[in-house]
């Protein structure tokens, strides 16, 4: 089978970008969409995120080969129940959530008879909502598919081809391992960024104005991540609790070691870590996962 | 007085950018420079970072109105001793170091009779060396000057005008307060970034290859900061120990609170923090301290 029609449930950054990518690449796939917020539906129709914005989830998924749930992971169960009455028997149900074991559970409970194949495109920006999406969001990025046991091979093939057609590179992974990997490459970085921005804005001896003025020293990078969607991220931490707490434990151990090195003026320990981490940056750039220009290619005034 | 000649000691990212900015803005200021590394001196001459690259520090500062030490903060004392024999009696000695109380001490010990006015332009990239500098690095960025007690008013005025002429906005601050503010807006963010990149590369259950592949989930931002110059940053932590440990304590308290919120599934605490931090990002952008485009304006492939 190959995917000829896609229904997108949730028309924010991810859902909108999928619709725009299908259009921009001229793929022979019809698109429908729905969002529970009428204002988002109206804006999605204006921007043409999908060909047809429907008034109900049921109508949006009617006859679709592939349904992609693009909602916060805590809302997956509700979204799945909303589409249930309209779902075609042959439809693949997938998603874009940042945690995968919890989503797989929620979807299989809500849709016990459906062909469910969770997925996670590792792509995004700090923006959200129907104006945030753009057609090239997935280009060159990895999409991790976490097929459940006994998953239909043809459906898995079709979903992989779909993401490849959007410009992604596809990797298959066990849901539990996905959650561990993403805890360290995404969830902990977000938690740390949110926390330090919170810490900085709560100090008595340094004003918020000073924090903002002198943010170019490094802090501003963290403010970008800490501007990400609050509902989405609340749900990520609640749904990937085990892996997040595990990785957070490793991080705080290492941070305590650095604290001790600073306190005891152990310059060698600091220098060793600071040298080792440069190699990771080089690899990230070499593998096309970031812009290699200084400062992410940020524009500097004149 | 106004500055007619500048000697730049250390021709890396900061020193090179000062020289290039003077040239690009057509300021009526002659530039000389020196670096202790002959290869850096050769490259600086090729790139024209300053008008005259000298063979000794003494020659470079001879007759200069303003000498700017652009070396790691741990090397300030040595640099100051190297320039001592050539320093003109009227010269202002300044620097660009990221910690200020320790630098003020080191400089006044090495040059007890000189007019010393430490400064810190809050600008930079993750790159270093004689190829890293560019003329617009300081445009729109703050330069914090920390005049010592009894500082000559005319000299302070001349230094302020110099940084303003490079496109910076100047702020005067007590050295101790500077060190506290920068601990939170720069030093702790760097320490956290170095640490999480180290943690991620040391895991047994997640490979380094996976960390790199899926870095677009947030981690890649931290790899940029963690690619910063190791010597410079080792010295920052050793020289600003008190303020860094103080701010690190606040951060880890807050991180522990977030850890508890995740463990006890307190979604409200997470949502509250994640909402509050968005306002800081907006202020950073409104005040021109970061690129407001999604993802720092990073290019997305097609």
From TrEMBL, chains A, B:
The UniProt entry, under PROSITE patterns, shows:
PDH_ADH
Q: Name one GO biological process term.
A: tyrosine biosynthetic process
Q: Which UniProt keywords apply?
A: Amino-acid biosynthesis, Aromatic amino acid biosynthesis, NAD, Oxidoreductase, Tyrosine biosynthesis
Instruction: Tell whether Amino-acid biosynthesis is among the UniProt keywords.
Output: yes
Highest taxon of the lineage? Bacteria
Query: Which ranges carry the Prephenate/arogenate dehydrogenase domain?
Result: 4-292
Q: In which pathway does it act?
A: Amino-acid biosynthesis; L-tyrosine biosynthesis; (4-hydroxyphenyl)pyruvate from prephenate (NAD(+) route): step 1/1
- EC identifiers of the protein: 1.3.1.12
- Matching Gene3D superfamilies, A to Z? 6-phosphogluconate dehydrogenase C-terminal like domain (1.10.3660.10), NAD(P)-binding Rossmann-like Domain (3.40.50.720)
- The keyword Flavoprotein appears for this protein: no
List the catalysed reactions: prephenate + NAD(+) = 3-(4-hydroxyphenyl)pyruvate + CO2 + NADH
Family annotation (Pfam families): PDH_C, PDH_N
A Gene Ontology molecular function term for this protein is: prephenate dehydrogenase (NADP+) activity
The family note in this entry says: Belongs to the prephenate/arogenate dehydrogenase family.
- Its protein name is prephenate dehydrogenase
């Amino acid at each position: 089978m190959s995917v000829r029609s896609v229904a997108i449930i949730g028309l924010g950054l991810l859902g909108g970008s999928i619709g725009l990518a299908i259009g921009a690449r001229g793929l022979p796939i019809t698109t429908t969409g729905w969002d529970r917020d009428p204002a988002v539906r109206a804006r999605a129709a204006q921007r043409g995120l999908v060909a047809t914005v429907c008034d109900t989830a049921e109508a949006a998924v009617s006859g679709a080969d592939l349904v992609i749930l693009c909602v916060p992971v805590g809302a997956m169960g509700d979204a799945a129940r909303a589409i249930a009455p309209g779902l075609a028997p042959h439809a693949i149900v997938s998603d874009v959530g940042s945690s995968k074991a919890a989503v797989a559970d929620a979807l299989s409970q809500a849709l016990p008879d459906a062909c469910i194949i969770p997925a996670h495109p590792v792509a995004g920006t700090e923006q959200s909502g129907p104006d945030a999406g753009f057609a090239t969001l997935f280009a060159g990025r990895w999409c991790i598919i976490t097929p459940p046991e006994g998953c239909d091979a043809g459906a898995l093939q079709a979903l992989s081809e779909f993401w490849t057609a959007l410009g992604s590179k596809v990797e298959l992974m066990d849901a539990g391992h996905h959650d561990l990997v993403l805890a360290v490459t995404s969830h902990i970085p977000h938690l740390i960024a949110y926390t330090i921005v919170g810490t900085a804005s709560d100090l008595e001896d340094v004003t918020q104005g000073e924090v903002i003025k002198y943010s170019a020293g490094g802090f501003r990078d963290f403010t970008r991540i800490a501007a990400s969607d609050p509902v989405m991220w609340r749900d990520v931490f609640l749904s990937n609790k085990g892996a997040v707490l595990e990785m957070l434990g490793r991080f705080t151990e290492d941070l305590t070691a650095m604290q001790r090195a600073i306190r005891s003026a152990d310059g060698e320990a600091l220098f060793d870590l600071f040298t080792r981490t440069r190699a990771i940056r080089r690899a990230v750039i070499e593998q096309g996962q970031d812009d290699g220009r200084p400062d992410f290619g940020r524009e500097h005034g004149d």
